[in-house]
């Protein structure tokens, strides 16, 4: 498998506690510890309200823990200045959500290029990014739909565009919060095939929240949260891991 970074553990969560509220305080994560290996495909499962989104947002530096810290290849998110953190996130982390959040008036390729408009690439770099966006859309199976408006695409196709968009900056980690929560079983299956392909082609580390236990079995590792605690953490043996066909 292609490895993206030199560090063995791309993420380490140490003593993560999350408390919401100021007057009425609710602790929703109660001191989580785990590490994610570079190139690993992890699912986070658990009932609604168990803290999956809260955890994913903290892992993705979209939210901060009340106590504890996250290390990315040994580097503490909490020590980065806000603009450093924004830059770090843009370069190293890709996000996909249950709803694709594509811009309806734009084509598939324009939607994929949006993150590069934000980081302000120019000239020669722009050409390179255009080619990369085309390659990514081909990789996610949308070669024939590159210039279609996103509203002309099916739900599964729109989610594929969102996946290509999340990969445009070649992130080390791709994080998804119930990315197939809105899709039928067959489309969900196809999207998970695509996740495996991304994992094997680019060596991307994947962390996917799902409440679909069956689909979670397709990843290398399943972390189950119950009431803000890690109830189980099961890793498949290397030799039984799925191979891309
Ligand atoms: N912004 C917030 N303010 C207060 N409570 C929150 C907030 N976000 C989530 N919660 C609470 O934290 C708990 C965990 O929520 P969440 O992380 O969304 O769980 P899941 O994604 O597993 O459904 C729930 O009880 C939820 O109501
Ligand atoms: Mg959630």
Rg from C-alpha positions?
18 Å
Quote the average pLDDT: 92
Which small-molecule species are bound to the chains here?
adenosine-5'-diphosphate, magnesium ion
The CATH architecture designation is 3-Layer(aba) Sandwich
The biggest sheet amounts to:
6 strands, mixed
Task: Please report the number of helical segments.
Answer: 7
Write a brief structural summary:
By secondary structure, the chain is of the alpha/beta class. 33% of the residues lie in helices and 27% in strands. The strands form two sheets. The protein has a six-stranded mixed beta sheet with strand order 6-7-8-3-9-10, with helices on both faces. Strands 2-1-4-5 form a four-stranded antiparallel beta sheet, covered by helices on one side.
Describe the structure.
The protein has 245 residues and is α/β, with parallel strands linked by helices. The chain contains 7 helices and 10 strands. Strand 4 and strand 5 form a beta hairpin. Adenosine-5'-diphosphate binds at residues 20-21, 26, 28, 46, 48-54. Adenosine-5'-diphosphate (ADP) binds next to strand 2 and helix 1.
Please outline the helices and strands:
Layout: E1 9-20, E2 26-37, E3 41-45, H1 52-59, E4 67-72, E5 75-76, H2 82-92, E6 93-97, H3 108-118, H4 123-139, H5 155-167, E7 173-177, H6 185-202, E8 205-209, H7 213-216, E9 221-226, E10 229-235
Parallel strand pairs: 3-8, 3-9, 6-7, 7-8
Antiparallel strand pairs: 1-2, 1-4, 4-5, 9-10
Helix pairs in contact: 3-4, 3-5, 4-5
Magnesium ion is lined by residues 52-53, 177.
